[in-house]
Amino acid sequence: MNIIDIQARCDRVPFFRFLGIKFDEADSTQILAQMPFADRFIGNPVLDTYHGGIIASVMETVASLSVLDNMDSPPAKPINLTVDYLRPGFAGTLMTRATISRKGRRMASVETVAWLEDERKPIAKALFHFLLV
Amino acid sequence: MTDTTDADRFAVIANLWNSRAKGLILEMDLKVERADKDGVQLRMPFNPDFCLDEEGTLLHGGVLTALLDSAFGLANFLAIDDVQTMATLDLRVDYLRPAKSRADVMVFADCYRQTRHIAFGSGKIWFDSGDKEEVARGAATFALTRGKGDSLLDKLNTTGPGS
Asked: Helix, strand or coil for residue B102?
């Protein structure tokens, strides 16, 4: 998979345009993406931090694209997710890396990590399960 | 506290939460339909920006997760008298069926257990149409700080809502 094809597929989806995700790197096991901050992503207006649901949405988006065989594949169906919120999501570009833990014929499990400045200081980690059929 | 002052407090919180909304809460255009210490019910109108397809037939799961997270925040706020701050520790969501409808999305959330430091929440999502089958179910835990004065309600009154 190359990032131009992933970006093109992503830009056809209304909600992914709402998020404004840009793809940096992709191979058969992982995707790295970033999202610039915008006011519409604020969850806590006292602190102007990202809404937890936005962080989860970005991670789900990147994870769901990482499990596709190619960009003509039908969308992966999300089954469930678990997010750990580790640090406050202050305003800034949100980086997300999705790594496939296991991909079978019917099911895939994907780990994601999201950070602002330093990948070693993640603001959230999540695990997603997808149905591929 | 009598029931009347409780009801007043719930109304004040729900009103503030609505009127001082910002960011994603505003984008989602949420309407508070019920708000007391036993739970909250919110209504989100259909929004094509939240869909997976240009035709607008299928909502992205992340929107449902965001909706649950928002509802948990308000539910905690109402259920925990002296909450000063709350931070989501973790959030788990099961997507039970495809979110395939243009009807309003409904969410119910409650804080079903609170300790000094932790709150536990559960919630569910359905469409306001047909048989109202559950589309998603979620659970979350929150880290709390409590105390008298400088409460979340005071901060809301001066700066804006928490989520």
From this structure: coil
Q: What mean pLDDT comes out for the span B62-68?
A: 97
Q: How many CB atoms lie within 10 A of CB A69?
A: 10
What does the block give as tokens for A84? Answer: 């750990």
Rounded to two decimals, the pTM is 0.92
Compute the distance between CA of residue B77 and CA of residue A126 in angstroms, rounded to an integer. Answer: 25
Closest of A59, A43, A63 to residue A51, by C-alpha: A43
Segment B147-158 shows an average pLDDT of: 71
pLDDT at A115 over 60: yes
Q: Give me the mean pLDDT over the B103-113 stretch.
A: 97
pLDDT at B31: 92
Q: Which of A55, A62, A83, A129 to mutate to test the interface with B (most CBs of B within 10 A)?
A: A83
Count of C-beta atoms within a 10 Å radius of residue B46: 15
If residue B32 lies in a helix (H) or strand (E), which one and from where to where?
strand B31-36
Question: Is 60 exceeded by the pLDDT of residue B28?
Answer: yes
Query: What ipTM was predicted for this assembly?
Result: 0.94
- Sheet containing A94-103: order of strands: A22-26, A30-35, A94-103, A107-115, A124-131, A77-85, B83-95, B134-146, B118-127, B105-114, B39-44, B31-36
Question: CB–CB of A128/A89 below 8 Å?
Answer: no
Question: Cα–Cα distances in Å, from A66 out to A37, B26, B28?
Answer: 23, 31, 27
Instruction: Indicate the residue type of B133.
Output: E
What pairing do the DSSP bridges indicate for beta strands A107-115 and B83-95?
unpaired
Q: What is the mean pLDDT of residues A50-79?
A: 95
Q: Which residues of chain A does B20 touch, with a Cβ-Cβ cutoff of 8 Å?
A: 45
Residues of A in contact with B67 (CB under 8 A): 53
Calpha distance A53→A84 (Å, rounded): 12
